[in-house]
Specification:
With 188 residues, the chain is mainly alpha-helical. 68% of the residues lie in helices and 7% in strands. The protein has a 3-stranded antiparallel beta sheet. It is elongated, with a radius of gyration of 26 Å.
């Protein structure tokens, strides 16, 4: 989620000033994402420049209230109805590390996967502990933790599949090397 989309979505319920947007964003995101005031005001300036928000009024304390323009209202609505794209070329650090490790003969790929598994299992335990520590009534937080748990579980399955794939590949190479060695041996 971009900060821009989040602020536009929050403005759908009515005009707000920057502080209100920050508080509502932080409340909606739970402990997952906290905006700083600089991000809020910088983003509001860009949204205003792009014609998506406009200044409604500035009160006696100097707080400016922003509202959606018609274009902003359309953009916020589109954000809710447009799926988040998953692309093949996303920049996943775990995959990148493994791909680079496969090119480096000095790196033990099994160790890279082992270290990642330990880290992911620790994260999974932490997410489950957080879920147990918070009341089920906190639906937004519980839903977010569920997502993190499922992502960690998926990564553990990916690590298992990758290890199996590398094991099979090593066996095939071992057989191929043995055949090549036998073919080079002089016949008696």
């Amino acid at each position: 989620m971009s900060v821009k989309d989040g602020l536009l979505a929050l403005l759908r319920t009515g005009p707000k000033h920057g502080y209100q947007l920050k508080v509502e964003f932080d409340e909606a995101a739970g402990d997952t994402w906290h905006l700083n005031f600089g991000q809020v005001y910088t983003t509001l300036q860009r949204l205003q420049r792009d014609g998506l928000v406009l200044e409604i009024e500035t009160d006696i304390e100097g707080r400016t209230t922003y509202g959606l323009t018609e274009s902003g209202s359309v953009a916020a609505g589109q954000w809710f109805t447009t799926p988040v794209e998953r692309t093949v070329d996303n920049r996943d650090e775990v995959s990148l590390k493994l791909l680079i490790a496969m090119k480096d003969p000095g790196v033990e790929i099994g160790e890279v996967l082992r270290v990642q598994r330990v880290n992911t299992m620790k994260a999974l335990q932490d997410f489950n502990a957080l879920r147990a520590a918070r009341p089920e009534e906190d639906v937004r937080w519980t839903m977010h933790l569920d997502r993190l748990v499922f992502l960690a579980e998926a990564e553990l399955r990916w690590i298992e599949r990758t290890e199996e794939r590398l094991r099979v590949l090593a066996e095939q190479r071992g057989v191929a090397d043995a055949v090549a060695t036998a073919e080079r041996q002089p016949s008696l």
